[in-house]
Structures are given as C-alpha cells and as structure tokens.
C-alpha cells in the first residue's frame, strides 16, 4: 500500500473515532433534551426536536473540532488565522442540514415522533450522510495537506515520470555548436 493511501486510511480511521465520540455526546444530549431519561421523563425540549438537535450537535461540534485538530488531522496544517474554526463551523452548519432534513421528514411527513424513529432519522441516516460530507470537506478546506507532504508527492511523481538515463554515447553537441 502506498504511503498516500496509508495516510488517507489513517486519517479516515481517526476521523471516525473522533466523530464517534462527538456523536455519542450529541446523541446522549439530544435524547436527554427531547425524550428525557429516568422515570419522571423530564424532557426540556420535548416539543422542539430540531432545536434540541442543533444544541446537542453544537456541543458535539466543539468535541469534534478539538479532536479533529489535535488527533484526526494532526499531521495537516491549518492556514487560516483562526485555526480553521470559521470554516469548520460553516461546514458543520451546512452539513447539519442533512440530518435535520431527515428528522423533519420523519416527524412532519411520516408522523413519527418516538425515540427510535428520531434516532434512526437523525442519528443514523442523517449522521452517515453528514459525516461523509464533512470528512471530504474538512480535508479539503480546513485541514490541508502540509507543504512538505505536497513536495514529497511531487518528488515521487517526478521520479516515476523522469526518463531513464541513457547508457550510450551522448548526442548533444558541445556548447555553441549545433548537433548533427
């Protein structure tokens, strides 16, 4: 396996680990806010599942940013002055529309408001769609490849494309004279 694919797979596995932790935090918080835990079933945002989803995932986004910056994409440089935070927030806000759309369809179109339906819509289907989009967008716009890796890749390509040295006599003419 080439070093490029090894780096890609390493980043993908680390991204999934960070995303798993952030998702767990958001999942617990979402369910606590919408469905409550315990016998008394105190749910602060029972009638506001979209707001609860946004709040829970904002906390998850903070976990994700720190994990992505310090673990998943630790070998990549961040060129913006804010450390990529603004691009990270914009990407998360836009991709959060995917699970919100799934939750809205489940609740408003299909009329499903139980905990299992909410979690399948937002935290399974929506999560897979959003996480896939975020992985590629983060790699492209927030956590870019270090310049040293770009130079190494160019050197490797140049070495492959370079013509093999000839073993025969030179056909070049001395300086100032045309070749026959």
Distance between the termini: 47 Å
Secondary structure category: mainly alpha
Output the helix-strand order.
Answer: HHHHHH
Number of strands: 0
Shape: elongated
Instruction: Please tell me the overall pLDDT.
Output: 80
Assign a percent range to the helix content: 55-70%
Show unreliable segments: none
Proportion of strand residues: under 5%
Rg to the nearest angstrom? 25 Å
Largest sheet: none
Number of helices: 6
Q: What count of domains describes the coordinates?
A: 1
Structure at a glance:
It contains 6 helices and no strands.
What would you say this structure looks like, in words?
- This protein has six helices and no strands.
- The radius of gyration is 25 Å and the shape is elongated.
- Helices cover 68% and strands 0% of the residues.
- The chain has one domain.
- By secondary structure, it is an all-alpha fold.
- Helix 1 packs antiparallel against helix 5, helix 3 (85-95) runs antiparallel to helix 5 (115-142) and helix 4 (97-109) packs antiparallel against helix 5.
